[in-house]
Design a protein that fits this description.
The complex is a heterodimer of chains A (about 525) and B (about 300). Chain A contains 14 helices and 19 strands. By secondary structure, chain A is α+β, with helices and mostly antiparallel strands. Chain A is globular and about 70 Å long. In chain B, helix 6 crosses helix 8, helix 7 packs across helix 8 and helix 7 packs across helix 10. Chain B is globular. The chains are: A alpha+beta (about 525), B mainly alpha (about 300).
Amino acid sequence: MKKRLFSLTSLALAAALMLTACGGGAGTAGTGQQAGDSAAKGGAKTLTVAQAADAVTLDPQKTNDTASANPMQQIYNTLIDLTPDMQLKPALAEEWKQVDDYTWEFKLRKGVKFHNGEELKASDVKFTYDRLLDPKTSATPAFLLASVKEVKVVDDYTVQLVTKEKFAPILYNLTHIGTAILNEKAVKETGDNYGVNPVGTGPFKFVKWDKSSQIVLEQNKDYFEGPAKLDAITFRIIPEAATSVAELRTGGVDVVLDLPPQQVKQFDNSDKVTVDKAPSFALKYLGFDQRQKPFDNVKVRQAVNYAIDKEALVKGAYQGIANVSTGPLAPGINGFNENLKGYEYNPEKAKELLKEAGYPNGFKTTLYLSDKEIDSKLGTIIQSQLKEVGINVNLQVIEWGAFLAETAKGLPMYLLSWTTVTGDADNGMYALFHSKNQGQAGNRTFYANEEVDKLLDTGRTESDPATRVQAYQKAQEIIYNDAVWAFLTTGQSIVARNKRVHGFVNMPTQNYKFYPVSVE
Amino acid sequence: MLKLILKRIVMLVPVLIGVSVIVFVLMQLTPGDPAQIMLGPQASEQDVANMREQLGLNDPLYIQYFRFLAGILTFDMGTSIKDGQSVFASIMNHFPPTVELTIAAMFVALLIGIPAGIVSSTRQYSFFDNTATLASLVGFSIPNFWLGIMLILVFAVQLGWLPVSGYGGGEYLVLPAITLGTQTAAVVTRMTRSSMLEVMRQDYIRSARAKGLAERTVIFRHAFRNALIPVVTVVGLQVGTLLEGAILTESIFSWPGIGRFMIDAIRAKDFPTVQGSVIFVTFVIVVVNLLVDIMYAYIDPRIKSQLK
């Protein structure tokens, strides 16, 4: 009996050991996982940041998602930076000028060191952009520099970008983390594994990445603007908002990025936690396929705009933490038209317009939604509001990937959002409204208006900032009057932090930099 | 015995091929283009086309399938569409935490379930039995995510005894193990109780008592060992349930295990990763069930002699 029990136990143990041993050769990223172990260094000033998703990769050219961008913003620098009010400021490029209509010249900061000790040279910039534009890289953010024809090294600290056509928004695009400068040697040395061994020039350098668990960075003592106030940053991956809130309460994390609006209220009277809110460049809209009946009629589109109570969406779906959208761009974006006030909530006017359009009794249609939770909430509210004016809406939820594919082919009515990642109107309008970008390229409403095309081209090619802004404002006005979308809401970037964290700057582009942050 | 093991291992092959076909077809049937998902709404048509070509998504389906199958035979599950890393290495990265969690949850389940089941059966319809029945019902019905969040609120936020979430030393394991193990504990309690009740009615138990053996000996040496077979079966099957429950539990406690890893892969339509990890988990469950079958022979000599 005893013997049998013993063998039974040893069998079970052996099985357990075997299974655990499978993980023995677990590759570099997974060994020695320990939650918050960097915090245990004793006295070191570590900031622990919670984010909901793990990074995809730390190679800025291989992704375009916020979860990867957050750590990359600390590891890398771009040539140019943005201030919170969307002004350009020098980063790796000390100064820049336009040589001719097609050529931009950048003077690099001298003495900048990569984390591997290499000095930043113009050749690294050329290498970075050549790699970004090489079709073999299949670079996710390649769209940012799609107009660049050639990258020229003038001398070690001077580099020129030559564009195929006049391309004015280039400076804004160069602030996007997707154009961060890489070190040629580091990329070549690590090859396919570069994404888990990133080397940048930023204020923090990469230490380790325990997949699905945490990304640990430490201070770069040689940072060109002087060392950061923090010794280390740990990004912890916490998928459940309820869990990250509990961590914030117990001091397990110091900062929670992109806190869902429904979690905000509980911190109203907290003496430990404060919530930073700032308007973001994320805009939620309801798109119409302009080719399909009845949405080919501008009156119908305007009627939908009047029939939706945007305030109710802000209250009902966003717990009040969002703003009513006034037009095709979010406030603060370079080129934003302040004169547009948004379609008021006026069901009577909506009914009138429907009558004029030949739908006195309304009509039936389908509103397509992605499977994101917020979209279902918005969809239900919109459904009931449109019913008031006689439009019977059937809600259809489609999985995100399929949703993108289907909207590119054309859906009568759909809910989608767009974040103007560069802070410039070109990024927020060219892909969405230019007739040459219909379908997959971003114009999912299949809107075609020659005048708007011309204005967007002017904005793209004209280098005088005032002329650009004028063109974009005019284009917004036309799009607004054409009611290409139902303009719904603009978002807020919500960051909860422990009050011991100081110096945090909330950014409308949701690109957070922890360089100026300190902890008590 | 050896023959049985060999036979079962050979049977693994058609099971795994079947699973691989089903997973492959299902992933193809779900709508959405992985290249488009990766690149997002800002990408151009040309970028998406290039990406599709690079990922080999333009090849005929059967070629994609055989490429995948050939890979598995050489322990190469390909590289992830999402991050370009080796699928096998990523699985090996995420599997140990799940094993740890599953074993701990099983430990919790057995520690609660077996004693509670035995006591319940020996004192049928007593206060303890009724309480245990009610507790099992509650334990079985409570959703994982709710229990997890409640445990965090009480033991981490209010009392501050344990960390909220994360992966590391033993203290990080306690709450997830209880969360995940509760349902299985309920199942094991019920199973042990009913199996024990059945055995206690057998003639040989009456004989044992008639012989004048102590009640303790009757229960543990005569009744429990015979009642154990169905319990072991259920426990074996529960391993699958635990792996499934790990998906939610891992999300709540930000535990870097295979459940979360698979969900992320499904969201990104990362074909190679989904296929690789489903095959891997299937393999593990089949192997666990094989171990359970082998255990029968150790627990019940009659089965062993039948095999001979």
